[in-house]
């Protein structure tokens, strides 16, 4: 009988018994509802051991890759340690570089702490040591880089972004925990087209996902739409154009809501533009990042254009002023 370790206690799972039923038999009630793999309420994470593939039916591939599964479908075949949430250790990293990408966005590059691993597109939680103020920022770097990269927008009266822009200096030690998030590229199905769309610093995770997909040999079309209110708010235009020139499968479209768009770009609402350009999104893997209203609008439009909800990965940003 497999042994299931949960919150420091060991429980034995009987033959042909689901993990959910086994723990309930021992008096441990995990969150659950339908008990049939439909509602996803009993989503659980394997910290050690491997859940059977049948327990990951209906779970997004990016979550399955991190060990998430459905307790109501899981009939363990080996010992496992499970948790309802992952707890990240706290890391410290030295600031290697600080550079303005436009008038309101700064790029930070940090050294990589020993033992820290991540997937391009995930985020970390940066901590201000003086008062433990914490904010989440996506990683724009990829594991092949020799540094971690963050793009941080200056928020009016934002306590964290003001500190980042005005006070921290190259050589400072910064603390963070993570990584978190399931908006990242997975190898496999390399011929399937990818849609990457977002606004503002939503480009950070998309830039990482794009470079990671290219690094891993993605051969299918990759379309990146990055938006801002006006051209001045866009950034990394030259870098993205160079990538497009170097990789025939990659297509970059800068978008603006007001005024003239850069060469090769489009003017209009980013929520509508991918559908106007690509038409049907059936078969696409979709990655959406930026402000919640934009992400929600893009998610709805992508689904209506034929993308499966299982293939739509999103990372909405929430800015917190003072």
From TrEMBL:
Residues 88-186 form the FAD-binding FR-type domain. Its cofactor is [2Fe-2S] cluster. Pfam families: FAD_binding_6 (PF00970), Fer2 (PF00111), NAD_binding_1 (PF00175). GO terms for molecular function: iron-sulfur cluster binding; oxidoreductase activity. This is Oxygenase, putative. InterPro entries: 2Fe-2S_ferredoxin-like_sf, 2Fe-2S_ferredoxin-type, Beta-grasp_dom_sf, Cbr1-like_FAD-bd_dom, FAD-bd_FR_type, Flavoprot_Pyr_Nucl_cyt_Rdtase, FNR_nucleotide-bd, MRET. Residues 2-88 form the 2Fe-2S ferredoxin-type domain. Signal peptide: none annotated.
């Amino acid at each position: 009988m497999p042994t299931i370790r949960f919150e420091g206690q060991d429980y034995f799972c009987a033959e042909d018994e689901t993990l959910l039923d086994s723990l309930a038999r021992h008096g441990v009630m995990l969150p659950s509802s339908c008990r049939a793999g439909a509602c996803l309420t009993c989503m659980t994470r394997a910290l050690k051991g491997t859940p059977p593939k049948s327990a990951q039916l209906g779970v997004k591939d990016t979550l399955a890759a991190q060990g998430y599964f459905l307790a109501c479908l899981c009939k363990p075949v080996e010992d496992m340690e499970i948790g309802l949430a992952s707890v990240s250790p706290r890391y410290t990293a030295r600031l290697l570089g600080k550079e303005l990408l436009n008038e309101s966005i700064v790029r930070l590059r940090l050294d990589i702490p020993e033992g820290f691993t991540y997937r391009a597109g995930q985020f970390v939680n940066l901590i201000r040591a003086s008062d433990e103020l914490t904010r989440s920022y996506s990683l724009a770097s990829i594991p092949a880089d020799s540094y971690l990269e963050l793009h941080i927008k200056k928020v009016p009266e934002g306590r964290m972004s003001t500190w980042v822009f005005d006070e921290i200096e190259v050589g400072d030690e910064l603390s963070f925990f993570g990584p978190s998030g399931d908006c990242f590229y997975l190898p496999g199905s390399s011929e399937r087209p990818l849609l990457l769309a977002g606004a503002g610093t939503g480009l950070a995770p998309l830039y990482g996902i794009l470079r990671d997909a290219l690094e891993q040999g993605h051969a299918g079309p990759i379309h990146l739409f990055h938006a801002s209110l006006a051209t001045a708010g866009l950034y990394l235009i030259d870098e993205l154009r160079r990538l497009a020139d170097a990789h025939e499968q990659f297509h970059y479209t800068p978008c603006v809501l007001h005024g003239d768009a850069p060469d090769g770009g489009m003017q209009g609402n980013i929520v509508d533009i991918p559908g106007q350009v690509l038409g049907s999104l059936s078969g696409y893997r979709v990655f959406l990042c930026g402000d919640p209203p934009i992400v929600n609008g893009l998610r709805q439009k992508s689904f209506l254009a034929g993308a499966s909800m299982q293939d739509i990965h999103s990372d909405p940003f929430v800015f917190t002023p003072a």
